[in-house]
Prior knowledge:
Blueprint: H1 6-29, E1 36-42, H2 46-49, H3 55-72, E2 76-82, E3 85-90, E4 93-98, E5 115-119, H4 128-136, E6 139-149, H5 152-162, E7 166-176, H6 182-191, E8 195-197
Amino acid sequence: xxxxxxxxxxxxxxxxxxxxxxxxxxxxxxxxxxxxxxxxxxxxxxxxxxxxxxxxxxxxxxxxxxxxxxxxxxxxxxxxxxxxxxxxxxxxxxxxxxxxxxxxxxxxxxxxxxxxxxxxxxxxxxxxxxxxxxxxxxxxxxxxxxxxxxxxxxxxxxxxxxxxxxxxxxxxxxxxxxxxxxxxxxxxxxxxxxxxxxxxxxx
Length: 203
């Protein structure tokens, strides 16, 4: 006959309770995105809209970003800028300097109350100020617009997903440096579980 001692049974109970306590603590400490949404506008700065993209592409992109903002308000709109550094080579050596064109494009529909943050890494989610804001306002769904697919915008979308957010890229309000690669980058995001929505379907 199989016999389980009281001591053995008690040990199993203690182990179970210990594991339950650990898992409960992990759940309490884990990020719990809320039910609200926000729009992140990534790197829409003069350096990219006036000095990287051609005028026609930039004008169309800004128009689509502004339409996205109009359709999603009163949702919180957050503009994230890149800390753009330029490599300078001279007889005195090599150094990095801030770009002269780091300002947000003046054609953007930005209101005084809209938050503007500057990131120093590729993903906007590396900013503690942004993470705190999203948690404070119980934001669990992030819409993304801006530049560039295959770079900062893609990295932000994937990072958001890793952190437990629902991430949705607005198809007409994003761009790659090479226009021909935009669809390729969007398909890769969709394959990774990132939502891609058409501007006409925003509401």
